[in-house]
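Lab notebook, design round three. We kept the backbone fixed and only want residue identities now. Task for the bench partner: fill in a sequence for the structure below.
Input structure tokens:
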């Protein structure tokens, strides 16, 4: 009816039934990644990754050590104001503890000492695994489709 709230939710079926909570948990992990990046909360960001996570970024580099990757991101964003946004994710659950996801993204940043903005668009191709009940990022790859510097 017209007065009923519109409900939108992701739904998938596995061999054991609905997996809505896993889809939301994976999306929430990625949302925290963006928030922690914009707020420069590097310690909190580290908790989102597995200890063996890999990280690939078109301008920051490729890392097999997540500590080095987060340090490189922190150094690259020093002094920048950033705002990252992700689109609706395309998440595939491959098992009870493993998933892949593609997130469309856009970011706006202001370089130190500038009043202008830089815009970036692209896609994150991520792998997630469940550790101790929490979904964590196992691999992250950003592919930029547009950069306006």
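Proposed sequence:
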């Amino acid at each position: 009816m017209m007065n009923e709230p519109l409900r939108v939710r992701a739904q998938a079926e596995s061999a054991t039934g609905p997996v809505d909570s896993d889809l939301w948990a994976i999306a929430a992990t990625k949302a925290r990644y963006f928030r922690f990046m914009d707020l420069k909360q590097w310690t909190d960001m580290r908790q989102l990754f597995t200890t063996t996570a890999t990280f690939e970024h078109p301008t920051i580099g490729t890392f097999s050590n997540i500590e080095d990757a987060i340090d490189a991101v922190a150094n690259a964003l020093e002094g920048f104001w950033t705002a990252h946004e992700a689109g609706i994710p395309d998440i595939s659950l491959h098992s009870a503890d493993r998933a892949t996801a593609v997130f469309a993204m856009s970011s706006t940043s202001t370089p130190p000492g500038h009043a202008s903005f830089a815009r970036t668009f692209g896609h994150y191709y991520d792998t997630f695994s469940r550790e101790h009940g929490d979904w964590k990022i196992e691999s992250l790859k950003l592919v930029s489709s547009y950069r306006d510097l």
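Keep this in mind before ordering anything: Strands lie at 13-14, 17-18, 49-57, 61-63, 81-86, 90-95, 98-110, 118-131, 134-148.
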